[in-house]
Structure formats: structure tokens, C-alpha cells
């Protein structure tokens, strides 16, 4: 070594020994062949790994890889054929166990063989493009054992039989199943699919088809769904225990298709237990189950949704057109609210707050609420009732909740301007008679309306509140500057701004002398501080408190309307008056006078006057006297308050007419706005745009829009195009 | 070193090297020998005989094992290269070196 120290170091190419001995390969191979036999016969403990490894290494090294490989194939195949015979010989239930055992043996042997032949695996095999040892072993097993004619079909039928047994309730050896299935999976996914999964799915489909047919004949909807759910969960559990994870989707599809999809319509429409019955009876559990099962199949949820929608519309339509129910508006609205609550609960509890269902609910409500054109009026009456007395003693949060629910119904209305008109009327009556339970509740509702519809909607309503406040201040100012009046009758004036309040024809009557003097004083005081304004007394809307002493000395305080006060004050100077005299003295219009006399003379418990003759109606020739025998339990007696009521037919027509009139300028304004920005537009587009703009207030009628366009053309706001009759042009 | 943690590597001349199992397992082949199912003789007795590897080479191999454990995460290819060169120089026979490396399944 030391003489080589000065030499340049070189790495030589590797030169292998050339083998002379032809029998070398044979000898080496027979050693290995013997070893393989021993391994398969569970006799490997005596062998030396190193020796075998070295032999295999040498064979490959000396270019005998081909011989080694083909020898391996032959030997292994022979062994597998023997194994195959022993498995075929197994009887009945032992077949699978024997197969399992032999499979485990083969795997162990294969691993040992691969270990000793590792060098070949890494060098010869990739170079010669042969199958690696491990894979080779699996392929040979597959070809010689699993696909052997006697074993293949027997294996499949045994596996399917076990699955069927488990489905009918028997307990099977799951561990064994798992091992066999895993064996199939190890042999390749195509083996698993062809030799097991496909037939499994087919058999399962047949099984569930039969089962579902059997169930649907004898079960009701809820029970059937329970059973379907159980079977579905069973299959999922089966997959986790002993099948390939990828089979889960496939088998659940089979169950869903056979048990749910094919019977969907029948289930939903089942008599006495179908979807509609579940909805009516609030069966949350059943509904939830139906939702979860149906969402797995195509069109499942849309089927439920459609049936629910048509049912809702049916009920809604009945509710809204039932004449009985329409007699009491408050009842009517309450029922609508109850129905909404019910379905909100169903959707949140059973349908997982699904938005599409919520939308279906909203569209159904919108549909049937607008079927009845008195809905806006009724909703306003409902609110009126609540704000007058319904909210007494209710906590603040509950008030908010109720008002929010009302707002929800409000949103469904298409004719919001009708609602506005009625609401204004009812609010005016409430404010003027001082009958609102909670000022805060009133204001809260105004705020909600403002959020919903914008400032314009509520500006007048807010004006009404402002007027009430201002009037209070004005009265304080009046009395503090006229201290001499504190002994006389007390006057309380509400000064109303004409634009904000619902328009009333202004009717005056002849007030008693004491009052008219006081009123004049107030008028001059007010006009003194506010020049350029005009005041007119609305005597049909006022109230009065009068102290009265009757024939037997009984004293009462009577709360009456202004008209009634005028009539009663006349009796201070006369005992008996005829109808005509009263009419002349007070100047009250006939219909109002008759109503007011009726409420004082003909109503039990409030008959402070006596009428001759004692008929129910007031005739022109009747005479009236003070009823000295009037008695009442209470000291304070209320007669004839002005309460908001459902309108009579003529009143209704009048209101509707006014609404239609109000709509005309709104439509025109919308048309002009649109044309100003677009300049030129055709007929259909104008209709569409106008409808869209006015949507938040009311549903515009195309005929009406057309009329407005004509009117605008006449007034030179628009012109028709000369060539195209359908095109309109804006005239600046 | 405990007996269970060690293996004995025996050279052609009969020289015995007792090393940690962990070190020996650096060689994939030795690892297979010792962990293969079926109970080969080597695994039973915990000793491996190499009738064709001399003691000098076997010693270098054992050193390699320990070096590999130490630098198992390293990218110290220069070290590896110089180590191989040292081995070649020592043995004077590149043929043996390559065969041994094949045994260790490095090459």
C-alpha cells in the first residue's frame, strides 16, 4: 500500500467475475426454490437469510435474473394451486375462514420471499419492466385463487348471504367479513368493485325495492320515514365496519333511491298522515325527519316546498275570504299572525331555517293577504285596537315583539298607501280622544314604519304628534296670560295643522254662550301670537265633560261629544224640546244630530234624555226631555265616544276613491321622473319602470298608467314619436 | 449496551462485531433480515454471518452505520463522499466496496 502513496488515485469501473460454471445458476436456483417451498410449508426457521439473500444477489449479478424471476413465478403458482384446492374443499361456513387463513399465510410468505429477493426487486425488475415481487404475489393469488372457477362465485354468494342475514337481523362475524373485504381491496380496486361491490349494490337495490314496497303498503308516512331512516343508518354503519369507505356514497344512493325517491309523491300525499297532516298537527319530529331524508334525493326538498306552498295558499285564501271571520278585523289579523307564527316555528324547528322555505312562506302570505282588498284597513284596525287597550299591562319587550309582527304583515301588503290612509284616520281619532295606551308604543311603531317606507310615509304622522305637543304648550300659555278665566269652564284646544291630519269637511255648530265667548278669547289670543293663520273649529271631533244634577238629586259627570254637549246645554233653559227646535238651535247637521240624540235617549244605561214617543229611531216630530229618573252605578258616565270602527260600505267606497285620486299624481310624478332621465322610451318599458318605482307603495294598474300618459301628452309634458306610435319622448 | 438492543455481525474470518440494533438497521437488508416474519435463523439468534466480507470492510461498515445515525438528517454529501474515498483507499479493492455498499443498499 505504501508504494502506491505517490500514485494518482483512480476509481476503476466495476468489473464483475465472469462465471465459468454453467451449473452455477441451476445450483443457486435450487437452493432458492427449496427455500420457497420451506417458507410455504411454515418451515422457515432453519434458513439463513444472509445465505439466501446472497444467492439471489449473485444470480442477478451474473445475469441470471430472468431465470430467477420465472422460477419464482412457476413455484409460487404451483403452491397457490394447491392452496386453492384446499379452500375449495372446505365445507359451508368454514369456506370463508379457510380462505382468510390461507390469505394470511400467503401474505406472510410473500413478505419473506420479497425480503430475500430484494436485490432483484430493485435492480433486475425495473430494468426488465417486470411486475415487482409483492404485486406479483397479489396478482398470482387473484388469478389462481379468487378467480378460480370454483371459488369465485362461491365467495361472492357467501358474502352476499352474510350481508342479507345481517339485514334481516342476525348477527354475523364482522371481523371475518372485514378481513375478506380488505383482501379484495388489497387485490386492487377493480377486483373489489367487480367481484363484490357491483353485485352487492344490485342485490341491495332489489332488497330495498321489496322492503319499501312492503312498508309503504302497511305503514303511515311517519312510520315509513322512521323505518327508512333506520335502514339508512344501518347501511352507513355497515360501511364503517367492514366495507370500503368509498362504498358509502354508493350504497346510500341505492337506499335513497329505492326507499325515498321512488315513493316520494305517494308519501307526501298520503291520506291522513302525509305532509299536509304533519303541518296541521305541528309534528316537528316527523317533519324534520322528512326534511333530512328528502334533502338527499333530487327534487326532494322542492316537492316538500311546493306542497307546503299550495297548502298555505289554500288555507290563507280560505281565511281571507271567509265572511264569518271577516266580521271582526282584530280577530282576522290575529289569526293571520298566529298562522305566521305556526309556520315560522315549523321552519325553524323542523326545516333547519331553510331560506328557500322561508321565501316560499313569504310569497304565500303575500299572495293571499292581498286577495282581500280590505287587508290594509284591517291591519290598521288591529294596531288601533292594540294601541288603545290591547297593550295595557304588557311589558316593553312584548310590545316590541307584537309591533314587529305587525310590521311583518305590513310588508306583505301591496297597497301600502291604503294602509297609510286608514292609519292616519285611526291615529287622529286616537290622539284626539286621548285614548292611546302608550305614547312610546305609538312612537316606536312610527319609527318602524319610517325604517320600512322612508321619511315621506311618516312625515305627516309625526306632524300629528308635534301638533299635540304644541297645543299643550299653547294652552299653558293661554291660561297663564288669562288668569281671570281659571274659575270658568276649562277649555282644552288641540290646534291641528291641516296638511298633516286627515281632511275633514269643516262643519260648525252653534256653541252654547259660555263656550263661544271662551272660544273667541282663545282665537284672538292665538292669532295674536301667530299672524297670517286661519283657525276653524272642528266641532264634530271634540269632547266635553259636564256635571249634571238629575231630578232626584243624583249628580253625575257626563263625558260627551261636543254635539251632545250643545244639545244638553239647551236643556238648562227648557224642560222639553222638539227635534226641530234642537236642530235649529244647535245647527248640527241632521244625520249627526240623529245619531247623537239616539246615543243619549235610546241606549240603556246612557239614557240621560227621554224621548216621546219611545221608539228606537229619531223621527222629525219627536220631542225630547231630560230623564229625571236616570241612574247609573258610576259617577262618571261615558256617552258616545268616537271609536274607530270598520267602515260601512259607502265609507269604504269613499276612502278607496280618495286613494285612487291620490295615486294619480304619484303615477304622473313617476312617469315624468323616468322620462326626464331617459328622454325616449317605449310603452312597455315605461309601464315596467313605473310599476317598479311605485312598488313600495302600491301596485300600479297598467291601464291607469296609460291614462296618465295620455293626460301628460295633452298637457305637453310628453309627445308621441311621429313614426312609432309606441315610443314616447320627453318635452322639456 | 443491553443484550436485546444489540446484534452480532460476524465477518468472513470469524471476527465478531457487536453493535446497536438501531445502527445495524441503517442497512435495509439487515433490517429485513431481522424483522422478516417467519423466523429466519438470523432473527432467532440475533447474529448475522457474512462469509464473503472481510473484517476490515465490516469494521468500516459498522463505522458507517454510526456515522449515518449521527448525520441522518444532514445534507453532508461532502462528508459522505470523503468517507467513501477513505473506505476505498483503505481496502485497496474497489470491488469489495461496491458490493458492500450494495449490501447496505446505498448504491
Automatic annotation (TrEMBL), chain A:
Domain Cullin family profile: residue ranges = 374-601
Q: Which domain of life is it from?
A: Eukaryota
Question: Which InterPro entries does the UniProt entry name for this protein?
Answer: Cullin, Cullin-like_AB, Cullin_homology, Cullin_homology_sf, Cullin_N, Cullin_neddylation_domain, Cullin_repeat-like_dom_sf, WH-like_DNA-bd_sf
What is a single Pfam family found in this protein's UniProt entry?
A: Cullin_AB
Q: Which Gene3D superfamilies match?
A: Cullin Repeats, Cullin, Chain C, Domain 2, Winged helix-like DNA-binding domain superfamily/Winged helix DNA-binding domain
PROSITE patterns linked to this entry: CULLIN_2
Q: Which SUPFAM superfamilies match?
A: Cullin homology domain (SSF75632), Cullin repeat-like (SSF74788), Winged helix' DNA-binding domain (SSF46785)
Give the family, as the similarity comment puts it. Answer: Belongs to the cullin family.
**Protein name (Swiss-Prot/TrEMBL):** Cullin family profile domain-containing protein
Annotated organism of origin: Hibiscus sabdariffa
TrEMBL record, chain B:
Pfam families in the record: Skp1_POZ
The record's listing under InterPro entries reads:
ELC1 (IPR039948), SKP1-like (IPR001232), SKP1/BTB/POZ_sf (IPR011333), Skp1_comp_POZ (IPR016073)
Q: Would the keyword Electron transport be found if you checked this record's keyword annotation?
A: no
Gene3D superfamilies named among the record's database cross-references: Potassium Channel Kv1.1, Chain A
Report the pathway entry. Protein modification; protein ubiquitination
Outline the extent of the SKP1 component POZ domain: 6-66
Domain of life of the source: Eukaryota
Where does this polypeptide localize?
Nucleus
Keywords linked to the UniProt accession = Nucleus
Instruction: Report if keyword Nucleus is assigned.
Output: yes
Its family remark reads: Belongs to the SKP1 family.
Which protein is depicted? Elongin-C
Q: Which organism is it from?
A: Hibiscus sabdariffa (roselle)
Amino acid at each position: 500500500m505504501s508504494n502506491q502513496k505517490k500514485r494518482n488515485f483512480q476509481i476503476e469501473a466495476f468489473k464483475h467475475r465472469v462465471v465459468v460454471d454453467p451449473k452455477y445458476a441451476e445450483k443457486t436456483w435450487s437452493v432458492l426454490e427449496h427455500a420457497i417451498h420451506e417458507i410455504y410449508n411454515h418451515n422457515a426457521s432453519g434458513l439463513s437469510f444472509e445465505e439466501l439473500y446472497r444467492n439471489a444477489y449473485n444470480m442477478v449479478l451474473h445475469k441470471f435474473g430472468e431465470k430467477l424471476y420465472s422460477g419464482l413465478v412457476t413455484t409460487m403458482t404451483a403452491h397457490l394451486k394447491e392452496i386453492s384446492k384446499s379452500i375449495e374443499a372446505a365445507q359451508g361456513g368454514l369456506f370463508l375462514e379457510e380462505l382468510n387463513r390461507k390469505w394470511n399465510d400467503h401474505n406472510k410468505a410473500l413478505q419473506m420471499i420479497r425480503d430475500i429477493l430484494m436485490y432483484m426487486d430493485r435492480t433486475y425488475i425495473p430494468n426488465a419492466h417486470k411486475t415487482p415481487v409483492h404485486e406479483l404475489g397479489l396478482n398470482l393469488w387473484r388469478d389462481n385463487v379468487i378467480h378460480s372457477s370454483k371459488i369465485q362465485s362461491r365467495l361472492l354468494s357467501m358474502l352476499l348471504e352474510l350481508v342479507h342475514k345481517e339485514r334481516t337481523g342476525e348477527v354475523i362475524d364482522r371481523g371475518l367479513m372485514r378481513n375478506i373485504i380488505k383482501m379484495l381491496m388489497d387485490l386492487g380496486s377493480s377486483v373489489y368493485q367487480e367481484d363484490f361491490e357491483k353485485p352487492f349494490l344490485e342485490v341491495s337495490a332489489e332488497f330495498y325495492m321489496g322492503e319499501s314496497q312492503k312498508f309503504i303498503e302497511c305503514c303511515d308516512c311517519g312510520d315509513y320515514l322512521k323505518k327508512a331512516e333506520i335502514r339508512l343508518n344501518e347501511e352507513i354503519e355497515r360501511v364503517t365496519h367492514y366495507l370500503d369507505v368509498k362504498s358509502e356514497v354508493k350504497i346510500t344512493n341505492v337506499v335513497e333511491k329505492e326507499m325515498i325517491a321512488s315513493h316520494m309523491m305517494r308519501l307526501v300525499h298520503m291520506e291522513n298522515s302525509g305532509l299536509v297532516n304533519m303541518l296541521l298537527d305541528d309534528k316537528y319530529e316527523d317533519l324534520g325527519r322528512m326534511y333530512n331524508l328528502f334533502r338527499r334525493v333530487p327534487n326532494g326538498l322542492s316537492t316538500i316546498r311546493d306542497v307546503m306552498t299550495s297548502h298555505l295558499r289554500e288555507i290563507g285564501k280560505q281565511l281571507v275570504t271567509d265572511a264569518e271571520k271577516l266580521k271582526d278585523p282584530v280577530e282576522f289579523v290575529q289569526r293571520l299572525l298566529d298562522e305566521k307564527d305556526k309556520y315560522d316555528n315549523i321552519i325553524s324547528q323542523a326545516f333547519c331555517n331553510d331560506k328557500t322555505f322561508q321565501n316560499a312562506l313569504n310569497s304565500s302570505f303575500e299572495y293571499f293577504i292581498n286577495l282581500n282588498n280590505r287587508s290594509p284597513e284591517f291591519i290598521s284596525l288591529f294596531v288601533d285596537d292594540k294601541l288603545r287597550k290591547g297593550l295595557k299591562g304588557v311589558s316593553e319587550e312584548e310590545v316590541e315583539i307584537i309591533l314587529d309582527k305587525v310590521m311583518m304583515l305590513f310588508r306583505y301588503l301591496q297597497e301600502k298607501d291604503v294602509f297609510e290612509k286608514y292609519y292616519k284616520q285611526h291615529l287622529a281619532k286616537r290622539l284626539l280622544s286621548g285614548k292611546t295606551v302608550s305614547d312610546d308604543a305609538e312612537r316606536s311603531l312610527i319609527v318602524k314604519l319610517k325604517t320600512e317606507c322612508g321619511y315621506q310615509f311618516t312625515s305627516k304622522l309625526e306632524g300629528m304628534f308635534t301638533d299635540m305637543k304644541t297645543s299643550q304648550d299653547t294652552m299653558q300659555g293661554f291660561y297663564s296670560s288669562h288668569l281671570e278665566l281659571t274659575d270658568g269652564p276649562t277649555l282644552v284646544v288641540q290646534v291641528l295643522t291641516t296638511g298633516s291630519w286627515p281632511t275633514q269637511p269643516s262643519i260648525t255648530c252653534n256653541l252654547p254662550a259660555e263656550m263661544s265667548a271662551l272660544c273667541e278669547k282663545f282665537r284672538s289670543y292665538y292669532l295674536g301670537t301667530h299672524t297670517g293663520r286661519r283657525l276653524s273649529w272642528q266641532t264634530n271631533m271634540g269632547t266635553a265633560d259636564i256635571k249634571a244634577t238629575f231630578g232626584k238629586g243624583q249628580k253625575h259627570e257626563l263625558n260627551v261629544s261636543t254635539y251632545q254637549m250643545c244639545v244638553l246645554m239647551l236643556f238648562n233653559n227648557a224642560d222639553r224640546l222638539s227635534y226641530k227646535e234642537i236642530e235649529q238651535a244647535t245647527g248640527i247637521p241632521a244625520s249627526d244630530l240623529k245619531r247623537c240624540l239616539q246615543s243619549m235617549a235610546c241606549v240603556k244605561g246612557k239614557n240621560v234624555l227621554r224621548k216621546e214617543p219611545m221608539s228606537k229611531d229619531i223621527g222629525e216630530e219627536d220631542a225630547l226631555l231630560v230623564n229625571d229618573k236616570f241612574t247609573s252605578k258610576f259617577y262618571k258616565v261615558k256617552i258616545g265616544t268616537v271609536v274607530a270602527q270598520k267602515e260601512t260600505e259607502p265609507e269604504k267606497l269613499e276612502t278607496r276613491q280618495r286613494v285612487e285620486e291620490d295615486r294619480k299624481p304619484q303615477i304622473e310624478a313617476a312617469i315624468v321622473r323616468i322620462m326626464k332621465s331617459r328622454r325616449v322610451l317605449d310603452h312597455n318599458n315605461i309601464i315596467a319602470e313605473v310599476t317598479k318605482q311605485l312598488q313600495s307603495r302600491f301596485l300600479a294598474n297598467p291601464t291607469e298608467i296609460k291614462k296618465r300618459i295620455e293626460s301628460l301628452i295633452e298637457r305637453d309634458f310628453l309627445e308621441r314619436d311621429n313614426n312609432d306610435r309606441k315610443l314616447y319622448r320627453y318635452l322639456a | 449496551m443491553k443484550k436485546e438492543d444489540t446484534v452480532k455481525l460476524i465477518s468472513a474470518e470469524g471476527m465478531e462485531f457487536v453493535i446497536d440494533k438501531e445502527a445495524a438497521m441503517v442497512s435495509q437488508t439487515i433490517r429485513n433480515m431481522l424483522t422478516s416474519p417467519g423466523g429466519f435463523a438470523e432473527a432467532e439468534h440475533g447474529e448475522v454471518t457474512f462469509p464473503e466480507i472481510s473484517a476490515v470492510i465490516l469494521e468500516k461498515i459498522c463505522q458507517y452505520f454510526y456515522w449515518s445515525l449521527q448525520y441522518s438528517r444532514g445534507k453532508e454529501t461532502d462528508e459522505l463522499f470523503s468517507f467513501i474515498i477513505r473506505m476505498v483507499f483503505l481496502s485497496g479493492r474497489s470491488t469489495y466496496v461496491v458490493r458492500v455498499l450494495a449490501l447496505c443498499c446505498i448504491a
